[in-house]
Amino acid sequence: MSCQLRPASEADIQAICDLVNGYAAQNLMLPRTPAQVRHALGDFLVAAAAGRVLGCGYLAALGPDLVEIRSLAVAPDRQGDGIGGLLVETLVQAARARGIKYVCALTLAPEFFARHGFTRVDRWSISPKLWGECVYCPKFHACDEIAMLKVLDS
Ligand SMILES: CC(C)(COP(=O)(O)OP(=O)(O)OC[C@H]1O[C@@H](n2cnc3c(N)ncnc32)[C@H](O)[C@@H]1OP(=O)(O)O)[C@@H](O)C(=O)NCCC(=O)NCCS
């Protein structure tokens, strides 16, 4: 895996949207607009090589103790190279450094997160996510995403 992880910048916004929205079109994740990405830009990490964005993801704060990994995606031609794992581990490490206790993800790839120490939980155990966002989602009553949670050691 020859790529570098770095904070996202303004110049990455379109590439992040293209990556995420390609999977959103397949119903694998939620879409993001450039405005949404710009709003969260300070929290986004990208994996890049030779000027190309190969992967992305960010931590969204849901409460004082809880963050969510969002918009985690790796380019189709670079999957299986360890980039997604590196993004998850780096985001978890960033949460740990901030003294966060819980990292969650709502995902259609639970086995991938399980490899990184996440366990499946009832979605109501991450209720700030549900009350803060999911209730506004058109898929709320037919959500097929699985809640995964990792408890960080203090
Ligand atoms: C999920 C995703 C981020 C993983 O990134 P990646 O760079 O391919 O992951 P890694 O190379 O670190 O790990 C690959 C391993 O995870 C497994 N894996 C990847 N995607 C998986 C999925 N959807 N379900 C279960 N396991 C998955 C692979 O089988 C592989 O296992 P192996 O090493 O035994 O072959 C990437 O496949 C992706 O972008 N998928 C589409 C978007 C998506 O589903 N994002 C997650 C939304 S929260």
Word description of this protein:
β2 and β3 form a beta hairpin. The protein has a seven-stranded mixed beta sheet, with helices on both faces. The chain is globular and about 40 Å long. The protein is an alpha+beta fold and 154 residues long. It has one domain: Gcn5-related N-acetyltransferase (GNAT) (Aminopeptidase, 3-Layer(aba) Sandwich). The protein has five helices and seven strands, in the order βααβββαβαβαβ. It binds coenzyme A (COA). Coenzyme A (COA) binds next to β4, α3, β5 and α4.
User: Which homologous superfamily in CATH is the superfamily?
Assistant: Gcn5-related N-acetyltransferase (GNAT)
* Strand and helix order: EHHEEEHEHEHE
**What is the C-level CATH assignment?**
Alpha Beta
Structural class by sheet pairing and helices? alpha+beta
Helix content: 25-40%
Strand content: 25-35%
Largest sheet: 7 strands, mixed
Flag low-confidence runs: none
Q: What is the number of independent domains?
A: 1
Task: Give me the count of strands.
Answer: 7
Q: How would you sum up the global shape?
A: globular
| Gyration radius, rounded | 15 Å
List the helices and strands and how they pair.
Blueprint: E1 4-7, H1 13-24, H2 34-39, E2 44-49, E3 52-61, E4 66-74, H3 83-97, E5 102-107, H4 110-114, E6 119-120, H5 127-132, E7 146-151
The protein binds coenzyme A.
